Amino acid sequence: MQLFAIIVAGLLYAISIFGEDVTLTDENFSAQVASGTWMIKFFSPYCGYCKRLAPIWEQFSNEQGLSANNLHIGELDCTQYGSICDQNKVNGYPTINLFHNGQYIEEYTGEQNAQAMAEYAKSNAQKYI
Ligand SMILES: *[C@@H]1O[C@H](CO)[C@@H](O)[C@H](O)[C@H]1NC(C)=O
Q: So what's the pLDDT on residue 7?
């Protein structure tokens, strides 16, 4: 029974790792985003909408099946790395943009809930295989 619990915990941990969103900075943004499909949240730690989005974003990044098809999730703090935000069509916070192989594709304008974001991310990742 205990072994079973350990295995389950391990699996959940593995899933959470796969779904994890990564912190991007001005130093590693380009290199990371250069390959694969990325959903990136550009935010300020201070804005109200960003604070409201934070738990939703975390839930989204933990949705299962997101690691398939070279799909990645990242976030970048525009108060620290503003130049990256300026270069990537970020006009307000939070902005969620879709990238594929380093190219800006579009802004996510769908519903602000984890499930809608996951559907969007998966269907786009599939489109760009
Ligand atoms: C980018 O750099 C930051 C700061 O060094 C680090 O915390 C983060 O994990 C890096 N992201 C990736 C995807 O390597």
A: 55
Residues 6+ apart with CB under 8 A from 46: 79
| Structure token digits, residue 97 | 């943009």
Is residue 71 within 8 A of residue 105, CB to CB? The reply is: no
Separation CA 50–CA 85 (nearest Å): 15
Q: What is the reported pTM?
A: 0.84
Q: Output the CA 28–ligand 1 centroid distance in Å.
A: 6
Taking alpha carbons only, the member of 122, 25, 124, 41 closest to residue 83 is: 25
Residue 26 Cβ < 6 Å to ligand 1 = no
Which residue's alpha carbon is at the smallest distance from atom 1 of ligand 1?
A: 24
